[in-house]
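Sorry to interrupt, but I need a hand with the structure work. Could you add the entry underneath, on a fresh line?
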Amino acid sequence: MPQEISVSYLAIKNKVYRLIDAMVVGEKSEADLQESIRRWWSLIHPADRPIAKKYLLAILGRSMAALDAIVDTVPSSHPCETNYPLLSSDRSKLVERLMKEENVPSPV
């Protein structure tokens, strides 16, 4: 019997945050995280994928906004420190574009 995967907003948020935490503490590499997401996605019923994608993009968008706010708040003594590579404007624009395509409300 196939495993049931919850596509509720809370379940997806918990999955994303657990994966982020595992990467932050060094338990998972970026490749491990991507493989986990691929396995998780393959377990979601195809009929549930549109809503799962909508929630995932909303969570990622809000997470990016939160990280940007944190980075913007931390004082920098060197101008080069303000361009944190993982929070590049390209990634932010990508998340915004994906959210617009899926009609996800922007994080505020």
About this structure: The CA atoms of residues 29 and 72 lie 26 Å apart. The chain has a mean pLDDT of 81. Helices lie at 9-24, 30-43, 49-73, 89-101. The chain has one domain: 9-101.
